[in-house]
Every structure is written in C-alpha cells, then in structure tokens.
Write a structure and sequence with these properties.
Blueprint: H1 5-18, E1 28-35, E2 38-42, E3 51-55, E4 60-66, E5 71-76, E6 87-94, E7 96-99, E8 107-108, E9 125-128, H2 151-156, E10 166-169, H3 175-184, E11 191-198, H4 202-214, E12 221-226, H5 232-250, E13 255-261, H6 263-276, H7 290-298, E14 312-320, H8 329-337, E15 340-344, H9 346-350, E16 363-364, H10 373-379, H11 382-396, H12 404-419, H13 430-441, H14 453-467, H15 469-478, H16 483-503
Parallel strand pairs: 8-12, 10-14, 10-15, 11-12, 11-13, 13-14
Antiparallel strand pairs: 1-2, 1-6, 2-5, 3-4, 3-6, 4-5, 7-9, 15-16
Length: 507
C-alpha cells in the first residue's frame, strides 16, 4: 500500500489546525468581608454548597451560603490574617478527614491534624466529613448489648450496639463521667471509641485524655478536640469529623462508639455562624435548620445489615440543660432524634447518688433487646420498683405511720438504691452486676444495714472471684443462669452473708 506525500501533508495540516492545548484553570474569587470565622466572597459563581475552599493564608473554608452575587463561607482555621481583597480558590471537592487504624490513640483537631505531639499521622484512608446515613434496607434491628459497666444503666436503661442514647442533665453532675466510664469498659470488647470534645476547656479535655491513657483506653480511642478557644467553625464541624472517623471502622464490619460532648456547644457555635452569615433567627435565636444539624449527625449511627458486614456505630450525645429545663429547644430536638435518654438529676447528685440517674424519666427505646437474659430476668421490674420507691419515699417523709408491707418495700428500695451507687472510673463486668442486683432483688441484703452494703458488695465479689469463678464465667459465657447455677449462687451468698453478718458490730 502506497501513501502519497500529499496525503501525509494534508493529514498533518489538519492535525495542526485542530490542535488544542489543555489549560489548567483555577476559579478564583476575592474576599469582600471577613471576620469572626466567616467570609463573604465574590467571583466564584460555580461553587457548590459544602465545597472546600482554599484561602490565601493556607486555611481551608466551607461554602455555606450560596447567594446571588456572593458566597458566605466559614473559615476552618486561622482567619485573623485574612483581609478584604485576598484570593480564594475553589477546590472542587468536599471536605475530608483522615481515618483508619493510624488514628487510634491520637488526639486530633476536627480537620484530622495531630495535637498530641506524637508526629504526623500516616494514613491513606480518607472519608467525607458529611455523608448520607444508611437507609432502612441497609440496617438491622439493634440486638447486641453495649455494656457501659455502670449498674444503674446496664440494668434499667440498657444500650445496644447501633443505638443513640442521649445523656442529659445540668452542668457538673456526671454526664462526661458516664461517657468516659463507658469508653473504659470497652477495653476487651473490640469496640473502637471516638470521643469528640466540643466547646470544653482545654484543661478538661487534657484531663480526659490523661485518664483514658492511665486506664489503657487510648489504645482503641480517637479524641477529636475542639475546645472553647477554637473558632466556632471548628466546633461546628467536629462531631461530623468524629462520625466520619468512626464510620471507617463501621463499614469494615467493626463496632464503634461515638461520644459527642456536647451538642449544646455545637448548636451555639452553629447559631453564631448562622447569625454572622445573616441567616434568619428562629426560636432562641437558633436558625430554622438547627434540628437538621443534629439529625443528620445522629442518623449516621446504625447497626448495619449482614450484607454490609454487620458493623455498628453507637452514639452517646451529651446535652447540657439549664436548671433541669429539658423542655428547652435543643434538648427537646435531640430527645426526639435519639432512641432514649439518660437523665441525670441534680437533687440525686447532691444527695450522694452517683451516678445520679433518674430512672423515672430515663428510658431506652431498645429495652430488653440489648440485655443478656440473666440481667433481663432479674432487672425486668427494677425501673418500676425504683420509681415506686421514689414516690413512697416522698410519702414517708410526711411522718405517717406505715404498715408492715409498705415499710418492707421502703427498706428494700433503700438497699436497691444503695447497691446501684458506683465510684467513677470503676466500670463493672456484666456478670458481677448480675450477681449484685440478684442479691438485692432476692432479699439477700434485707438483713444488712444500708451503710454496710458497699463493704458487703466488695467482699462478696472478691470472694466469688477467688473461690467460685465458675459462677461469673457461666453468666459471661451463657448470658443466663439455669436453676442449678442459681441454687449454687444462693448457697454461696447465704453462707457469705452469715459470716459477714457475724463480723458486724452488734446494736
């Protein structure tokens, strides 16, 4: 086959005429005004909602308001050095954070940058900060218990893997303590924990990290820190970053626990950003979409179907109330999103009931599905009994003479309340909880004074651990007690009670 020179030259001419070089084009805008963590930008009309922006000082931003002639953006980093006229570039991507096994044991900011001085985090895994929650077909019902190690919760307000359980109460009455105890209790369970600290003092966060390290819990925990000193945009984005880091493990078939401490501060940061961006204020000056702020975060918690690996993400959001006002805007919003709440009451706290859980208005909407059979059997009526005891206690304070049955019910109630007390940072294995509550429910404590119960519980458990470990192993492995095991436990407790009572000072 012959090719003429004319044909070659004509092809070359045609190629030269049609040649186009690819140009790298950046869409660049300029800052119209900047301050307090927000910027108004002109000139990037094709920007998408939620898109990452790159500011000239190296900080990242997030496109928030898409207006006719400008864009309202939040600045995720240093904004004091930015000024009117500075350049802003589109990135064409949504915000991502690093995730993976390399994050375990680290303290990071909401952008995934290390804050603990242990060097850079080397990981190839990233997830979008905002992602869609799993649909109904991608979920299965919550049925595996997530043990907190706290008697008052595991017995009356059980939490399951994939559940969202709100911790609510006034300032300084033990909300964070419950969350930290739950993290410590996951030591040998294979659950990865993410603790998101929003709007707290830096010293408080450092104290939490120190405690987790001393208890050996940082090995399976990621701490996302957005203290009160950090800008409002970082406090706003922190819970979503924590959820993204946990989702990595959930979608790999693992089990995770996310603590958001606390979402009241996130809502306040979001209100600040919204008002600065001129969004219309609603109730309590919060913007109209503040419900969506928390719902799209908490809906990401799920127990995934077996087709997706069966992983789970459990959420423990924390909400701070003012003077016990649970009917305020943010508390009612989050109560309606979650699967139950643990309400901590100041009066119980100051009366020495620690943890100060009010079982009357605390509830778990998953209920007995998230309990082992042994606990479900002995604690089935405990919530109602404790609620009835509180009513009876108030009545008895009037000084009225009580009949024998009422007095016995009152005495039993005092003992049940006493054995539900628990020191901080001392989570208890579920088998030991079953033994203690079984003793109270079956009248084995009725002959003892209330003041001696803590000592009795401690010595009884030590006795069973050393002499009869098969009792605890049986409950742990089988999740229930058969009649033979219960008869054995009855004999052990009765014999120990006699020895303990004999050693008590008489009169």
């Amino acid at each position: 086959m012959k090719i003429n020179a004319d044909e070659i030259s004509s092809v070359l001419k045609k190629e030269i005429e049609n040649y186009q070089s690819d140009l790298a084009v950046d869409e660049v805008g300029t800052i119209l005004e900047v301050g307090d963590g927000i910027a108004r930008i002109y000139g990037i009309s094709n920007c998408m909602a939620g898109e990452m922006l790159a500011f000239s000082n190296g900080a990242n931003g997030l496109a928030f308001n898409l207006e006719e002639n400008s864009i309202g953006a939040v600045i995720l980093g240093e904004f004091a050095t930015l000024k009117e006229g500075d350049e802003v570039k589109r990135t064409g991507t949504v915000m991502q954070v690093p995730c993976g096994e390399a994050m375990l044991g680290r303290v990071v900011d909401p952008l995934g940058n290390p804050l603990d001085g242990k060097g850079p985090i080397k990981t190839e895994h990233f997830r979008a900060v905002e992602s869609a929650a799993p649909g109904i077909a991608d979920r299965k019902s919550v049925h595996e218990p997530l043990q907190t190690g706290i008697k008052a919760i595991d017995s009356t307000i059980p939490i399951g893997r994939g559940q969202r359980e709100l911790i609510i109460g006034d300032r300084g009455i033990g909300k964070t303590a419950i969350a930290i105890d739950t993290i410590i209790n996951q030591r040998d369970s294979g659950v990865i924990c993410v603790y998101v600290a929003v709007g707290q003092k830096g010293s408080t966060i450092a104290g939490v990290v120190d405690r987790l390290e001393r208890e050996g819990a940082m090995a399976y925990t990621i701490v996302v820190s957005a203290p009160a000193s950090s800008p409002a945009p970082l406090q706003y984005i922190a819970p979503y970053s924590g959820a993204a880091m946990a989702e990595y493990f959930m979608y790999k078939g693992g089990h995770t626990l996310c603590v958001y401490d606390d979402l009241s501060k996130q809502a306040a940061a979001y209100r600040q950003l919204s008002l600065l961006l001129r969004r219309p204020p609603g109730r309590e000056a919060y913007p109209g979409d503040v419900f969506y702020l928390h719902s799209r975060l908490l809906e990401r918690s799920a127990k995934l179907s077996d087709d997706l690996g069966g992983g789970s993400m459990t959420a423990l959001p924390v909400i701070e109330t003012q003077e016990g006002e649970v009917s305020a805007y943010i508390p009612t919003n989050v109560i309606s999103i979650t699967d139950g709440q643990i309400y901590l009451e100041p009066n119980l706290f100051f009366a020495g009931q620690r943890p100060a859980v009010n079982v009357g208005i605390s509830v778990s909407r998953v209920g007995g599905n998230a309990q082992i059979k042994a606990m479900k059997k002995i604690a089935g009526s405990l919530r109602l009994d404790l609620s009835a005891f509180r009513e009876l206690e108030a009545f008895a304070q009037l000084g009225t003479d009580l009949d024998k049955a009422t007095q016995a019910q009152l005495d039993r109630g005092f003992r049940m309340v006493e054995i539900l007390k628990q020191p901080q940072y001392k989570p208890m294995p579920i088998a030991e909880q079953v033994v203690v509550i079984w003793c109270g429910a079956n009248g084995h404590l009725d002959n003892l004074s209330v003041s001696s119960l803590a000592d009795f519980e401690d010595k009884l458990l030590n006795h069973i651990r050393s002499e009869f470990p098969e009792i605890l192993e049986g409950i742990t492995n089988a999740g229930e007690m058969n009649k033979e095991e219960e008869a054995n436990l009855t004999k052990v407790v009765s014999d120990f009670n006699k020895d303990f009572s004999a050693k008590l000072p008489q009169g």
